[in-house]
C-alpha cells in the first residue's frame, strides 16, 4: 500500500521472536510469509510495514504501541550514562552513535551494560578490600562482609531498578482500583488484614498467618508503617519473580549478602508501590524536594520518602541524585543508599563536623548545611532525626539521624536553598572519614590519615590532635 509508513526494527523483531521461543520458520508460518523474509526483516534489509506490525500484534496478542514504540530509548539513556564514566573521557563518543548502537544492536548494548555493572561491582569490592585490610595484613584473610556485599550490589546500580519500578507501578494501579491494600489483599489472596496488640505479636510487626488466612500487623505501627508493611507483604506474594530477576546478575560470595540484597529489593518494590515513580517524580519537582510536604502527600514517613528520593535515576527520567545515610548517636552507620556516586558513600560519614551527628540536639527539626570535601567538591546536606519502635507506653524507641546529600550543582532545585546561592555560602570543611582526610588543621580529628607521618611532640605540641611531617 502506497500510504503505509515503513520502519526498520530488525533487532526488536529478533528479540520478540526469541522471547516467544520461536524459530524464523515458526514465525514465518504464523505470519504466512517466507522464512527468508523474516531473516531480511531481522537484518534491517527490509522495512517492517504498518500492515506487518498489525499482523504481529494480532498473531501474538501484543500491544502494537509497545511493539512499534521506541524501545531503544531506555537502552540509549543507560548506555550514555555508562559512557560518562571517567575511564571513557579520552574517547570521542557522540550521543548519536550510542543511540544508533542501542537501536540497532540491543543485544550488544545489554551485554556491554552487564559487563559495565560487573566492573563497577568489582571496583567497589576492591575499594572495600583495600579499606578493610589492615596495613601489613593479608588481604585474603579479610572477613567477607555480607552488609558490604549488599551495599555494593545497590551502589553499582545507583540504587535504581527501573523494571521493579514499572512492575510496582502497575500493581499499585490495580491496588488503587480495589480500594487500597487491605481490600485488594482480601479479594485477590483471600487474606484478611488484622491488627493485634504488641504483646500478641511476640516481637513481630508483620506476620503472614496462612493457617488463619490473615496478614497480622502490630498495633504499634503508625499509618505509614502499616501501609508499607502491607505493600511489602504484597511484594512477597506477587512480585517474587521481579525481585529475583533484578537480583540474578549480582555477584555474591555469602548467602547472607544475597539475602540482604533480596530484602533491600523487596523494600524498594514496596516503596515503589506506595510512591510510584511517575507521580512521585512529578511531585518532587513540583514541591522542590520538600521531604516533609512530599511525605504528607503520599502518606509516608520522612525516612521512607528520603529513601525513595535516592532511587529516582530511571534512564531518561532522572531527578536530583541523592546520597542517604542513617546513623545512631554513637556514630554507627546502619544504612547507606547511594543514587549519586559520592566519594563517601561506602566508608565515609564519620566526620563529627557534619550536622548529621549533631541533630540529636534538636530532634525532629531539619538542619541544612553546605559541605566541602578536601578535593574542593561542595555538597548540600539535609539532616533530621527519625524514631523507630515505640507505639505504646513503655515500648522501646530507637532514635537515629538521617541525612540526604546532593552535589552543589543540584542544590538550587531544593526548597531548602531558596535565596541561598551556592557560590555565596560558606561551607563546612569535612572529610569522608579521619583516616582518608588530609586536613592537617582539623581539631576534630580522631585518627591520623593514611600515609602521613606523625611528628613527635618532645619539643612542640600542636594545637590539633596530631602534628604531621611536611613531606
UniProtKB/TrEMBL annotation:
Highest taxon listed in the record's lineage: Bacteria
UniProt cross-references to PANTHER family, sorted A to Z: HTH-TYPE TRANSCRIPTIONAL REGULATOR, HTH-TYPE TRANSCRIPTIONAL REGULATOR SUTR
Xref: InterPro entries: Cro/C1-type_HTH, HTH_RamB, IrrE_HExxH, Lambda_DNA-bd_dom_sf, ScfR_C, TransReg_Diox_bact_type
Keyword Ribosomal protein: no
Molecular function GO terms recorded: DNA binding; DNA-binding transcription factor activity
Protein name per its UniProtKB record: XRE family transcriptional regulator
Pfam families documented for this protein: HTH_3, Peptidase_M78, ScfRs
Organism: Tardibacter chloracetimidivorans
Transmembrane segments: none
Residues annotated as domain HTH cro/C1-type: 13-67
GO cellular component: cytosol
PROSITE patterns per UniProt: HTH_CROC1 (PS50943)
Annotated family: Belongs to the short-chain fatty acyl-CoA assimilation regulator (ScfR) family.
Keywords noted in UniProt: DNA-binding, Transcription, Transcription regulation
Amino acid at each position: 500500500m502506497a500510504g503505509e509508513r515503513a520502519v526498520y526494527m530488525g533487532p526488536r523483531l529478533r528479540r520478540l521472536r526469541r522471547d516467544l521461543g520461536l524459530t524464523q520458520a515458526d514465525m514465518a508460518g504464523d505470519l504466512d510469509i517466507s522464512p527468508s523474509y523474516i531473516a531480511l526483516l531481522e537484518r534491517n534489509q527490509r522495512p517492517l510495514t504498518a500492515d506487518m506490525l498489525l499482523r504481529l500484534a494480532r498473531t501474538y496478542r501484543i500491544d502494537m504501541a509497545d511493539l512499534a514504540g521506541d524501545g531503544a530509548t531506555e537502552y540509549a539513556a543507560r548506555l550514555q550514562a555508562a559512557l560518562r564514566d571517567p575511564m571513557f573521557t579520552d574517547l570521542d563518543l557522540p550521543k548519536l552513535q550510542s543511540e544508533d548502537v542501542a537501536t540497532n544492536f540491543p543485544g550488544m548494548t545489554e551485554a556491554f551494560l552487564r559487563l559495565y555493572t560487573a566492573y563497577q561491582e568489582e571496583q567497589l569490592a576492591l575499594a572495600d578490600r583495600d579499606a578493610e585490610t589492615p596495613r601489613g595484613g593479608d588481604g585474603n584473610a579479610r572477613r567477607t562482609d555480607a552488609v558490604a556485599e549488599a551495599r555494593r550490589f545497590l551502589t553499582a546500580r545507583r540504587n535504581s531498578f527501573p523494571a521493579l519500578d514499572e512492575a510496582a507501578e502497575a500493581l499499585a494501579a490495580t491496588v488503587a482500583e480495589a480500594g487500597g491494600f487491605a481490600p485488594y489483599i482480601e479479594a485477590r489472596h483471600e487474606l484478611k488484614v488484622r491488627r493485634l496488640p504488641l504483646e500478641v505479636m511476640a516481637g513481630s510487626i508483620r506476620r503472614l498467618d496462612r493457617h488463619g488466612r490473615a496478614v497480622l500487623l502490630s498495633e504499634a505501627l503508625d499509618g505509614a508503617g502499616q501501609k508499607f508493611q502491607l505493600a511489602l507483604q504484597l511484594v512477597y506474594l506477587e512480585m517474587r519473580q521481579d525481585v529475583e530477576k533484578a537480583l540474578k546478575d549480582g555477584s555474591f560470595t555469602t548467602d547472607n549478602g544475597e539475602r540482604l540484597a533480596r530484602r533491600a529489593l523487596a523494600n524498594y518494590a514496596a516503596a515503589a508501590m506506595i510512591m510510584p515513580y511517575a507521580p512521585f517524580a512529578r511531585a518532587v519537582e513540583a514541591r522542590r524536594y520538600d521531604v516533609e510536604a512530599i511525605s504528607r502527600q503520599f502518606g509516608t514517613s520522612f525516612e521512607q520518602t528520603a529513601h525513595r528520593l535516592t532511587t529516582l535515576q530511571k534512564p531518561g527520567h532522572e531527578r536530583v541524585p541523592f546520597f542517604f545515610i542513617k546513623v545512631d548517636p554513637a556514630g554507627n552507620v546502619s544504612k547507606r543508599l547511594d543514587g549519586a556516586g559520592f566519594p563517601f558513600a561506602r566508608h565515609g560519614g564519620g566526620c563529627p563536623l557534619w550536622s548529621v551527628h549533631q541533630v540529636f540536639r534538636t530532634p525532629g527539626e531539619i538542619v541544612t548545611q553546605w559541605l566541602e570535601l578536601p578535593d574542593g567538591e561542595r555538597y548540600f546536606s539535609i539532616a533530621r532525626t527519625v524514631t523507630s519502635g515505640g507505639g505504646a507506653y513503655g515500648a522501646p524507641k530507637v532514635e537515629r539521624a538521617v541525612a540526604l546529600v546532593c552535589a552543589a550543582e543540584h542544590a538550587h532545585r531544593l526548597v531548602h536553598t531558596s535565596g541561598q546561592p551556592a557560590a555565596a555560602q560558606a561551607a563546612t570543611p569535612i572529610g569522608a572519614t579521619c583516616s582518608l582526610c588530609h586536613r592537617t588543621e582539623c581539631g576534630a580529628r580522631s585518627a591520623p590519615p593514611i600515609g602521613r607521618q606523625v611528628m613527635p611532640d618532645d619539643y612542640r605540641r600542636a594545637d590539633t590532635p596530631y602534628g604531621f611531617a611536611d613531606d
